[in-house]
Amino acid sequence: MELPDADRRLGVPSNRVNDMDYELAFAATVATASFLVFMLIVHRT
User: Fold this and answer.
1) Which residue spans traverse the membrane (predicted)?
2) Residue extents of the structural domains in the chain
3) Is there a contact between 7 and 14 (Cβ–Cβ < 8 Å)?
4) 3-state SS string over 14-42?
């Protein structure tokens, strides 16, 4: 699934768009995990 229009707009190769999607998903996962750990620490104290 490649988006040449988006690639030209961003000025990056198509594989970088996929990397950006993975980074976004990874950031969301890290944020969720950090929130769960934070809640665990708060409730434990």
Assistant:
1) 24-42
2) 10-44
3) yes
4) HHHHHHHHHHHHHHHHHHHHHHHHHHHHH
Structure confidence by residue, pLDDT tens digits, 1-45: 555 555 555 555 555 556 778 888 899 999 999 999 999 999 987
By CB atoms closer than 10 A (0-12, 13-18, 19+), residue 17 is: middle
Task: Supply the pLDDT for residue 3.
Answer: 53
At 17, phi and psi to the nearest 5? -65, -40
Measured CA to CA, the distance from residue 33 to residue 29 in angstroms comes to 6
Question: Does the predicted TM-score (pTM) go above 0.85?
Answer: no
Give the span between the Cα atoms of 29 and 45, in whole angstroms.
25
